[in-house]
Design a protein that fits this description.
The protein is an all-alpha fold and 170 residues long. It is built from 7 helices and no strands.
């Protein structure tokens, strides 16, 4: 069962009209925290993300399976969606078995480095056009003040990089 804080955060995201993946992100974050806290382990970073998404779907967040998802993944997403509607409890035997299996796994896949590698890999799979569209959309939703702040930060970064480059030449 997700923690109340997570459910509240996801609900707040929904109220603010944020995307399903943003709402689901709260559940993925919770899953990563759970593994870090040693409640259980995971085989891979992807598994931690998958558990988070599954919990999100079961909590009623409308996250569709990705376009490239396998039929098994699609089936699981469908099953999770149904589970969010029917209120029957998960069998305790199964629940215990899952936890027991996960307890044997490691916490390494949610280390900073592992998450960073996962993010880079996921980003590398995206096309330039897709990344560019995402950036354009981000700029659109930022608003004038946000854009100005981002521009100032970019200018600061450029200045710092130039200063670092100048030092390297000496």
């Amino acid at each position: 069962m997700p923690e109340r804080k997570t459910l509240e955060r996801a609900a707040r995201d929904k109220k603010q009209g944020k995307s399903a993946s943003t709402q689901a992100g709260e559940f993925v974050r919770e899953e990563i925290d759970r593994v870090r806290a040693g409640k259980h382990g995971v085989k891979s970073t992807k598994q931690a993300i998958a558990i988070g998404l599954s919990k999100a779907r079961r909590a009623g967040v409308d996250v569709p399976a990705s376009k490239s998802a396998s039929s098994a993944t699609r089936r699981k997403a469908e099953q999770d969606k149904r589970a969010s509607r029917d209120g029957h409890a998960k069998s305790s035997t199964r629940s215990q078995a899952t936890t027991k299996a996960l307890k044997k796994e490691s916490g390494a896949p949610v280390s900073r480095g592992a998450l960073s590698r996962q993010a880079s890999r996921a980003a590398a799979k995206r096309t330039a056009a897709d990344r560019s569209a995402a950036a354009r959309k981000a700029a659109r939703t930022k608003g004038a003040a946000g854009r100005s702040a981002a521009a100032k930060k970019a200018a600061r970064t450029r200045a710092a990089n130039r200063a670092a480059a100048a030092h390297a030449h000496h």
